[in-house]
Amino acid sequence: MNLMRGIERFIESQSVSINSDHEVTEWTKEEADTSVVPQDTSHSDCGVFVCAYANLLSADEPLNFSQNDIPVIRRRIAFDLLNNRIRP
Questions:
Q1: Dihedrals φ, ψ of 7, to 5°?
Q2: Buried/exposed 58-83: b ≥16 CB within 10 Å, e otherwise
Q3: How confident is the model at residue 87, as a pLDDT?
Q4: By mean pLDDT, which of 25-34, 45-54, 68-77 is the weakest?
Q5: pLDDT in tens, 67-76
Q6: Rounded CA gap, 68 and 82, in Å?
């Protein structure tokens, strides 16, 4: 199973568990050029990377950050959570 199909199956299973009607099969999917996607070189910041990807992609912004930006991104996530800008 490829990565994209694995993600689709996960989202589908989560949709069923919360009685949602998300139809993943109808979504437009794009493969990313991994040479331009920021990589977690520390192997301990993957969650922060995922949050940063989601934030930028949902705003239709480029993925223009690096491992060096993770401390700032981590503080921004904490600030947003503490100030009810995003729900946990």
A1: -65, -45
A2: eeeeeeebeeeebeebeebbeeeeee
A3: 66
A4: 25-34
A5: 999 999 999 9
A6: 23
